[in-house]
Amino acid sequence: MTNQFKSIAIALIGAVILFASSCKKDNNKVVKDGIQRSEIILTEMSGAAIEAHGDHFHGLTDLTAGTTVVIKFDENGKATANGHLHLEADAIYKLELKAWDHTGKEVQNQFIESKAAADQFKAFLTGGNFILNKDSKTESGAIFQPRETTYADGTAVTGQYETTGVLSYLTIGADNQGPTKQITYVMRKLEPGLKAKITRSDWNDIDYASRFAGQDVLKLKFEVHVEKGHAH
Prior knowledge:
The chain is mainly beta. The chain is 15% helix and 37% strand.
């Protein structure tokens, strides 16, 4: 009987060790924080009334969608597909952000979930050494205009200071033709009260981080080569 009890005790101890080891392995399966992959969807748009005007566009209604290209990025913001684009100088593009977390959940609408949430975020498009349209003598410069009209909860976005940049419109302009330009789409989480101070002229500011305190949530890097008569 003694040997039998010893065998049972050893078996129980082994089971406990195996269970503890299994639990430890499960505890190590931690889901990472942050965004696991992202996409920027660029769609060329046309319309009878659409045109560049100063720091923004006129006629962003009743548009017709043309060619679409999808730039894909890994968790470090490095382009994994279509990271070098050939864009038409005078074309106007709709720019849409998509993002997924490490569980595979689509999360870009968290930036614009409600006004309270969106007040913390703003998109910038840095690099390129662009001539901005507001500084162009021929209205042939670059514009990046965040353009949400509703938050994800269905309430209305009111005016330029509430827009975020999950949905935007972009033109590079004939003034910026030439060599390939390195640019970065940035989604920045801002300190309270700063979003209302960001104007339509600040989107390409190289000093955005020092002017608007906060943390970059996304930095998506890609290249554009702009010429008249170019396709993607």
